[in-house]
């Protein structure tokens, strides 16, 4: 920080035994002085100043009443702070008090002296020494719609792995050049234990086809985030045989969840972890408890892994990059009227909508105008896993009865079991920012049916907290991160794990008989990705136990897998499966990929041809004038040169 010239000290003389309010310091910095701002076209960061308050006192008596001073700077990050004064002349002076505020607001410092204990009144004189500092210029929030440097570096490394895999699968004679390598992604949907189980089977199947090494991204929500977070504990998971991993998952899916999750020792563990989390500075909510329950379901022991630990699985480009998805909503407003995608990677957490991102390890910390103000320890991965409602809607559907003492902690469990643990409340890292007056003309991502997107005062920059919910509550899809033009995704393997309708179209328009695989997209135009859609259906698996291998009469029962019924063995509230149901779902999911290998290869070949054609066209295209222009310092302007700010206050 750079110190400016100290402001003149303000002396307040107050008699103890009185309660007074003084409006002392006021920042009188000239509003017409140049101000450096940073903007990405959607949101604006203004200069932040720091007011440092030193408190001194002069006593006319050795003994006096114990007092407390309250300082308030409205609109600052700290807002209000209290300072206690000792009762004698030997008491140490309190540490300086700091207030961070937007420089342009010209705030005032309000001081209130209150007595804490009634004693004989004596004169006491307080001196306030005030000093203004200029805060750091480098932001802790990245403003920009491009990919972060770490992800760009990862893609360069991953393309080498993908190029080698494609050469083998497509039996190419020559190596692919970097700009000829398509970006392939796996997109998964929610579905609780059904999604967790089927995704493992799908990944095993694409691994055995050597297609997994062609994939650069995997996106997930709800149940599939459990699969992803579990896999990425191993830095080399995609290079190992997933059959062994599936065996371990099988043990966890078969066990009785309620007996293991609500045992007395587990309840004590949950309480200890929640208390520790609160001491670290986190805000405790239902989803924290749910995260601990998920941890117990999948591990049966404490899982120390964090989101940033998954960077080790990416440092050589050895695995696809995982992207987890959540929704930010508003309290008392339907998520159909307002919702915003929030994406999580091992590198960053942020809003593609606003072009604002923070480091993954800083998620949960407190920010103001793009600056990290209060660092909170990074959460363990279990506290980030989505809070999909998996508990039965009616208590009498439980296989066992949960009995615990009638105290405040047991009431939390009753609420979790009986109610949906809907949302997490997180400090808003966009706090303090302003919307650019022309934000709708920028790369800001707007919902067509969301009126609040056109009302800047109602957007996230105006709130103190984010309210995050499981994306599946509103949309059972993790497509949005793959639609960002910066990622340039060419092929999407869509693995659907939803129950009921597989196409999300009205019942009267639903295709009566869905196939195992569909290819959607223009095989010649590179403007849109090619989608390979795998609905969760039981089609030819009824009659074939492997591609081209028919079932014998005695094996027909193994092909009877009910994935269509919303109340079948794989319904969303079912946390545990029988051995038979688990094996059937795994075998069906594995088979559907294997049986459509040719369609997958066909789509990958088309993507490579599109990339080659696009590269050829770019080489033949004459350079434009914009290609040779030297860019200015990105995102930085002076107030006098920023008509987009208008008269924002």
Automatic annotation (TrEMBL):
Membrane topology per record: Peripheral membrane protein
Principal cellular location given in the protein's record: membrane
Gene3D superfamilies assigned to the protein according to its UniProt record, in alphabetical order: Cytosolic phospholipase A2 catalytic domain
Lyase among keywords: no
Ranges of biased composition (kind: Basic and acidic residues): 611-641
Xref: InterPro entries: Acyl_Trfase/lysoPLipase (IPR016035), cPLA2_C2 (IPR040723), LysoPLipase_cat_dom (IPR002642)
Location(s) in or outside the cell: Membrane
Chain segments carrying region Disordered: 611-649
GO biological process: glycerophospholipid catabolic process
Entry keyword Hydrolase: yes
Pfam families per the UniProt record, alphabetical: cPLA2_C2 (PF18695), PLA2_B (PF01735)
Alphabetical UniProt keywords: Hydrolase, Lipid degradation, Lipid metabolism
One term under GO cellular component: membrane
Domain PLA2c stretches: 134-638
PROSITE patterns: PLA2C (PS51210)
SMART domains referenced in this protein's UniProt entry, alphabetically: PLAc
GO MF term set: calcium ion binding; calcium-dependent phospholipase A2 activity; calcium-dependent phospholipid binding
Name assigned to this protein: Cytosolic phospholipase A2 epsilon
Taxonomic path: Eukaryota, Metazoa, Chordata, Craniata, Vertebrata
